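Just wondering, does anyone understand these tokens?
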Amino acid sequence: MTDEILQPSPLQALHKELNAQMGGYDGYELPAHYPSGMEVEHLHTRKQAGLFDISHLGQVRVRAKDGNMTAVAEALETLMPVDVMGLEKNRIRYALLTTDQGGIRDDLAISRQEGDFLLILNGKNREANADYIENALGDECRLVREFDRAMIALQGPAAAAVLSQILDASLITGMRYRDSFDLQHEGGIITVSRFGYTGMDGFDICLPANAAEAFARRLLEHPDVAPAGLEARNSLRLEAGLCLYGADIDKTTSPVEASLVGNIAVCRRPGGERAGGYPGAETIEGQLEHGIYRQRVGLKPEGDVLLAGGVELFSDEARTDRVGRITSGCFSPTLRCMISMGYVTPAHAAEGTRLFAVDAAGQPHTVVVTALPFVSQIGH
């Protein structure tokens, strides 16, 4: 069996210059951390601004062949329980592609740009999901893959001030959370969205691959900006209670189980003006009405122990009554303790409930159900 061949990022030379520790992420070789380490990068992002390479994400444009954006919105609504029709120009939403069984095929960001919709797919299975969307949209729509473009994230409280020194200052400082604009910049069109995956205020930026390094270098020239790897991005998203596809959500979990009901638009729910009409609607509507057998919760282990994905949870110390499973966990640099997320039965989902787990070494531990997010999201 041969090792996986990883695709280099457009910022590969810069990462090597900065002595990044590289790792494999959805088929790309990207920085896990830099010499400063995950904890320093995490805290710097919280206090100032971290620069992340997220070029593994898949950028897709969906356009109408005849220019009819309404037809595109209608087609996209057949794939996701989102109010795409009501999405205003230059606005972005978090969305879920659902399966026929009511599971989550992918979670993504969708924005309505000047003449099309931009979808940001997870790097995991981005080709397969782009194929799925393209085949499902019908003849009136055209899907354009832009997988050769770069994507970076500038996240943290200093992000707007820093970015306004490079781009149109009045535009950047005036952007609301979830605004998204296509801009003409050196090297071509870039898309700037006041959005992100860290729980912080900040921006995701899509840009041509050949312009990415120069743009990143200009950002790093600012004293408030430091490079940050995907380990810090993971710990930030977990503190913010955000899901990682393939760990906390997948085709076997529904939006209701994942506590993502807020991302099912009211107009797409039972009684709404465009209720249903997306894959798995009947199952999801049934869960909304009748309840679920498990739900996503925050968990804090008691003591200094990392309880990560796969660890089973029990209601009793003898571990005879299995009630759930942990899906992800890490050390929280902000809270200075270990944190986890997972699924438990509704009867054991109340904040403060004590549960029991066994770590990889076979040692028993107590965990406490905790409200999400662990750390309040900023700018949202």
